[in-house]
Amino acid sequence: MPINSILYPFRELLHLFFPERCPACGGVLPEGVRFLCPHCQWDMPLTGYSIRHDNPVARKFWGQIPVEEATSLLFFSSHSRYRTLIHGFKYYGQWRSALQLGEMLGRDLHQSGRYDTVDRVIPIPLHRRRLWYRGYNQSEYLAQGVARILAVPV
Ligand SMILES: [Zn+2]
Asked: Which helix (DSSP H) or strand (DSSP E) does residue 88 occupy?
């Protein structure tokens, strides 16, 4: 018997007392949803930059360092519930959110068709003191999510 079918009743019981919550708005997730609630998914402030070589993120690098492409998945606002999502995996141990957001970015890059030649994903290293304090590098989880969708190694 698979372990999931043995654990399923206990998981359901656990979710009854500790329901899974949307990491952006904090609302209880509907049955079968594992990341963002439908409202937060629908309302994401997506940039759409990945389809354009000439986008505001890429322009920030021009003349500074050589880059082939640059993009951003979301617009950031300090008063947005997506700030809560990002702070969750940056400061509060919600590394699964980084993995899932990385997968969203990976799908965005894949659908753009502009990142087909990517052969690996390199996470930004974290200072060892911060790594010790936090216990993980959120950039590694973002990179794993992107790499999983692009089918390349980290
Ligand atoms: Zn939500």
From this structure: helix 81-91
Q: How many domains does the chain have?
A: 1
Name the residue range of residue 136's domain: 22-45+80-150
In percent, the amount of the chain with pLDDT more than 90 equals 71
Ligand 1 center to residue 99 CA distance, Å? 17
CA of 35 to the centre of ligand 1 (A): 9
Over its C-alpha atoms, the chain yields an Rg (Å, rounded) of 18
Distance (angstroms) between ligand 1 centre and the Cα of 79 equals 15
- Domain assignment present for residue 135? The answer is yes
Output the pTM of the full model.
Answer: 0.84
For residue 58, the CA-to-ligand 1 centroid distance in Å is 30
